Known about the structure:
Shape: globular
Bound molecules: flavin-adenine dinucleotide
Amino acid sequence: MSLYDVVIVGGGHAGYEAALATSRMGCSTLLISMESSKIGTLSCNPAVGGTAKGHLVKEIDALGGEMGFITDQVGIQFRILNLSRGPAVWSPRAQVDRAGYPKAIQASLKKQKHLEIREANVVEVIVDHYRIKGVKTSDGEIINCKAAILTCGTFLNGIIHIGLKNISAGRFGENPALGITESLIRLGFESGRLKTGTPPRIHKDTIDFSVCQPQYGDNPPEPFSYRTDSIKNPQIPCHLTYTNKTTHEILKSGFEQSPMFTGRIKGIGPRYCPSIEDKINRFSDKERHQIFLEPEGYDSIEYYVNGFSTSLPAEVQEQAIRTIPGLENVKVLRPGYAVEYDFFPPFQINLNMETKSVEGLFFAGQINGTSGYEEAGAQGLMAGINAALKIKNDEPFILKRNEAYIGVLIDDLVNKSTLEPYRIFTSLAEYRLLLRYDNADLRLTEYGNKLGLVGDVQYDSYKKKVSCINKIHQWISNQTVEPATVNPFLEEQSSSIIENPEPLIKILKRPEITLKDLYKGSKIFADDILEDLNYRDTLREVDTSIKYDGYLKRQKEQVDKFIRLEEKKIPKHFDYKAIKSLSAEAKEKLSKIKPDNIGQAGRISGISPADLSLLLVYLEKGNRGNQNAKTQI
Ligand SMILES: Cc1cc2nc3c(=O)[nH]c(=O)nc-3n(C[C@H](O)[C@H](O)[C@H](O)COP(=O)(O)OP(=O)(O)OC[C@H]3O[C@@H](n4cnc5c(N)ncnc54)[C@H](O)[C@@H]3O)c2cc1C
């Protein structure tokens, strides 16, 4: 009978990140997926990143994960979003070649040491005395392991809906995963039902691009990965068009056959990424909605109709889509559809992604109620790291909310236990100015290196960047500029000139002056400093830290307060019911989630400041040796 350190069920974005992490950390790993040729498939749009999602990809990369590196290899259009707003919300996004992405992932997995891949269908989780023992496949084979990570995505009892027709499937043309939900329920887990959807795919040669607005990527494109020097792939544009009143009327005519509006779909859908029928129903005053036509790859004839996700009958979809400018004669290659699937409300996992009730069993990705490749990848990486650490008897690796979007994501999942599809947003991160996409390496590379996931090239490059940043800061803080040197540049930038010599840092704090413009337009900088400024994205880091110094200091003070609360630990088996004056809701929620510390307890929805004060008083009494406090660490 085979025994692996870690078995991972599912080769989606959570699965491959988890598998690479555990095997790179030296654990013998088996990745089981239903169809090995589908490993790394992008189920919905051929794009990676986006607002806050791009931050996750950069963080995955800084920790030694794969998503950003692969995106760079197969990206067909790269853009930094939200550049007209502050640096906290700038976010990288890339369109990718749909066929190329899974191929590149599979190539990475194949050459990875300590990693085996098997095509099989897991139907049961085997547990002995609340500890994982292995998994059972549909052939009856039992595969033993010390830890298992379930990353089943949208496949658990999956049902696809198109109009009033439905079929059992995990994704278009792929079987659902049957058996796992039931085996987990038998073990005492709670499950729920969610849904998501995808738009139709259309034939490229039947689109009239001349009436659509082209959307170009950045030139030069900025890579996601700290392992990529530059993007060499040719870049191709997307196009923008709009729905109109006629489109909406036709879509409305199909509402009677909508699986959503007739109640056939029971699962809750994503609020932030609604279907087109949901949009015209909820925002009935809007006369048009944006539609992005996104190429699926260099050699693909398919275009993805972003903004037109729907599960209406295929005929209604086709009729409606042909009212959109540029799509009058379009050939629909595949209709849009919705998929319903089981998930496990994530209060059932700990911050290290391990389930609370079965030791050694981890959940990651859509199974925890999230939606999106990036959210899945981030969880997969963290589950993989923590499974490996557990096997090595090391402390869990938990990122705090002030350290990473990954920390925000997992903390939200565990403490708020989503009941609808969860996606990451910049607004969810209270310390977002500290968690910029462009400083992910500064925040996380040391961790990735200590874990053994960041290789020498990436680590050396990070070290060099740190040293460049320190040198530049020191140099700038010692410089005074003469009016004669800087005034011509200031006049050019419509910035007020200086009468007397001034510290350079003062000039750089002006919002209209960027470090980039200053170094290009003046002779202030020494040659070696210019060289350092040009090292990777050093320049942007220095500019942001000078300009936003005040805000950054304020956020750091808030972080100090946050950390103080995180350091007030709550014993593992603390008996909340013993605090008589605690509200019934607080007792129930705290007992269910079992927070590690007071900070985490305060983030659980329904826990009031009064509940927290009581808890603090009780814990302090306990620390002073009060016999009534049933504390046991
Ligand atoms: C139709 C559709 C529309 C979507 N729309 C959006 C969207 O608009 N926005 C968005 O952000 N995200 C969307 N998503 C979600 C996105 O695809 C997922 O969030 C992401 O892929 C989840 O990654 P994952 O690793 O958790 O699972 P998945 O990528 O779903 O991968 C799961 C993998 O596990 C395998 N597997 C499952 N069960 C078993 C088993 N028992 N045995 C062996 N192998 C198993 C499957 O074969 C598959 O390879 C959509 C997904 C679908 C299907």
